[in-house]
Amino acid sequence: MPFKPPEVTKCPKCNQNVYAAEEVPAAGKKWHKMCFKCGLCKKMLEAMTVAEHEGNVYCKQCYGRKFGPKGYGFGQGAGTLGMDTGEHLGNKGGSEMTNKPNYAPPPGVGAHEEE
């Protein structure tokens, strides 16, 4: 039986060979330890701090900012009061509420009553 070398995979970040001694398995792929960084802030990631979206890896904080829910109540601290739309993270503008309810005004509101 001829010798068969172990299968070597390519790192999705740098497209170089990843050998078993240096691999970090995450998001269904094998990464170099030095390539396994957040796609936005470039912070080194670990198995417990990684979030994957469309083949890219992010730290939990950047993932939440870029892909998480927007609006009041979906953050922590005073940051929830800001008007950050995430455009600096690549989110497109125009994140206005398109499903905003259109209720009729309460009785007496908008009517000018003279005394």
UniProtKB/TrEMBL annotation:
Organism the protein comes from: Rotaria sordida
MF (Gene Ontology): actinin binding; metal ion binding; structural constituent of muscle
GO terms for cellular component: nucleus; Z disc
Keyword Repeat in annotation: yes
Protein name, as recorded: LIM zinc-binding domain-containing protein
Domain LIM zinc-binding: 9-69
Region (Disordered): 85-115
InterPro entries per the UniProt record, alphabetical: Znf_LIM
Cellular localization per UniProt: Nucleus
